[in-house]
């Protein structure tokens, strides 16, 4: 028995050393993996830039580089320290939404794809439930539902509210979920038809955007408008749809 203990004891004494060596090896392997991932991301970015034919010498890759071009001012540096950014809707913001008849809705897919959809109806079509919750009705359309699919996959969204002739916009962001409660859908009747789905938006931030873009573009000035609307022909895009599918859609 004594002989056995003499054999085992040195091995037991080695356990802390083995554990330390193992932990060191794992740290090294983890660091190598992180470096490889960063190099892959960097190479992918470089490939995309290279494909554009643009000289990458002046490409901004860090926040510090960006701030060298656009220094931090009194308005803050990010959402968390900008004085005008709130994490709720104040009275001005609620009044703006109640008069808005048009909003851009940005949604995000899990693969990183960002989509922006126009949503519009009578002024106040987006309901302000309280300072932290909005409800946006979704109407029958072309059934592509790209944005709705994104919300199911990734709840993060952004909105930009507009009012005709008003030179500021209201930017709102947060998380969203979809609801098909019949009682809720029936509250959002338009032209005799209930909403198909409602988008419930929990507010994370809200702030007003200044008027510079509207002043420069003269978008609300009729004298700056083109004499004729730009005409878009959808027929060329429908040619790729199988005839049987097209017939079934028309017959619905």
What does this structure look like?
The protein is α+β, with helices and mostly antiparallel strands. It contains 9 helices and 7 strands. It folds into 2 domains: 1-59, no CATH class; 91-226, Pnp Oxidase, Chain A (Roll), CATH 2.30.110. It has helices spanning 2-13, 15-52, 63-69, 91-99, 146-153, 182-186, 212-217, 235-238, 243-251; strands at residues 102-108, 114-120, 127-130, 133-138, 156-162, 169-179, 197-209. The protein has a 7-stranded antiparallel β-sheet with strand order 2-1-5-6-7-4-3, with helices on one face. Residues 40-46 have low confidence and may be disordered.
Computed Rg: 28 Å
Instruction: Tell me the distance between the termini.
Output: 88 Å
Which assembly state applies to the chains in this document? single chain
CATH topology of the largest domain: Pnp Oxidase, Chain A
Shape: extended
Structural class: alpha+beta
Q: Write down the domain tally.
A: 2
Biggest β-sheet: strands ordered side by side in the sheet: 2-1-5-6-7-4-3
SS field, number of helical segments: 9
Q: What is the strand and helix layout of this fold?
A:
Layout: H1 2-13, H2 15-52, H3 63-69, H4 91-99, E1 102-108, E2 114-120, E3 127-130, E4 133-138, H5 146-153, E5 156-162, E6 169-179, H6 182-186, E7 197-209, H7 212-217, H8 235-238, H9 243-251
Antiparallel strand pairs: 1-2, 1-5, 3-4, 4-7, 5-6, 6-7
Concise overview:
This protein is an alpha+beta fold and 252 residues long.
Descriptors:
extended, 252 residues, 2 domains, alpha+beta, 39% helix
């Amino acid at each position: 028995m004594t002989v056995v203990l003499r054999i085992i004891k040195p091995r037991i004494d080695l356990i802390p050393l083995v554990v330390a060596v193992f932990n060191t090896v794992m740290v090294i392997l983890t660091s190598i993996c992180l470096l490889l991932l960063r190099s892959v991301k960097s190479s992918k970015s470089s490939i995309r830039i290279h494909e554009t034919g643009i000289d990458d010498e002046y490409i901004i890759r860090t926040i510090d580089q960006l701030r060298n071009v656009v220094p931090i001012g009194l308005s803050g540096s990010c959402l968390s320290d900008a004085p005008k950014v709130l994490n709720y809707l104040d009275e001005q913001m609620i009044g703006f939404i109640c008069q808005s008849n048009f909003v851009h809705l940005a949604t995000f897919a899990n693969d990183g794809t960002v989509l922006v959809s126009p949503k519009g109806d009578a002024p106040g079509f987006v309901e302000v439930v309280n300072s932290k919750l909005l409800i946006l009705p979704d109407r029958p359309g072309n059934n592509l539902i790209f944005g709705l699919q994104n919300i199911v996959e990734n709840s993060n969204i952004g909105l930009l509210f507009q009012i005709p002739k008003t030179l500021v916009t209201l930017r709102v962001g947060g998380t969203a979920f979809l609801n098909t409660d019949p009682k809720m859908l029936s509250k959002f009747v338009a032209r005799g038809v209930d909403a198909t789905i409602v988008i419930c938006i929990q507010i994370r931030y809200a702030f007003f955007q200044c008027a510079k873009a509207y002043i420069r573009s003269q978008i609300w000035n009729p004298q700056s408008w083109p004499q004729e609307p730009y005409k878009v022909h959808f027929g060329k895009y429908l040619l790729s749809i199988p005839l049987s599918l097209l017939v079934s859609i028309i017959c619905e």
